Amino acid sequence: MKTSSRYLSTRQTHGLVKLGEAYCPGDETFPSFAELGCAEHVDEILACMPEADRRDLAMLLGVCSWMPRFVLSSAVRLLQWSPRMPTPLGAAMRFLHMGIRGLLLTLYYSGRAGAGYRGPTPYDVLGYEVSVYTADVDATETSRSAI
Of 14, 42, 19, 27, which Cα lies nearest the Cα of 96? Predict the structure, then answer.
């Protein structure tokens, strides 16, 4: 996996992958976050973030890199329960959960994999394919050119 990022250190990138594994651990059909190698494309998202947010995220990822996996998984589970917490702490946890999940799922379902990954992407597993139907336009263009 490529660990060089313009915005994240190797340690912070490791934290991103560990956090991604907590959200997208993979199973017999779906690749895990780490297997997919989608963290290689994190700079494309971070380039669009305000500098202060990018700095805060880098600090969070640095902390995550030091956490044992079971502690990190427990913290993610706690964040997933945050909608049941009506206090201001619950609101802050929901906000954090939404931001982290948004980053990780955007990377995972971006359709982009790491350079070394050769297996099926989540889109392949889902059978999801985006295309644009143009047969009607092509037929109109052909009939206009015949006139």
Answer: 19
3-state secondary structure of 62: helix
- Which among 10, 14, 4 is positioned nearest to 65, based on CA atoms? 14
Tokens read off for 20: 């991604």
Question: What residues contact 3, with CB distance under 8 A and at least 6 apart?
Answer: 10, 13, 14
Cα–Cα distances (Å) from 39 to 15, 18, 36, 130, in that order, read 10, 10, 8, 23
Q: Give the 3-state secondary structure of residue 132.
A: coil
Structure tokens that stand for 80 in this block? 């997933």
Q: What digits encode the pLDDT tens for the residues 71-118?
A: 999 999 999 888 888 888 889 999 999 999 999 999 999 989 999 999
Q: What's the pTM value of the predicted model, to 2 decimals?
A: 0.81
Q: Are 45 and 103 in contact (CB under 8 A)?
A: yes
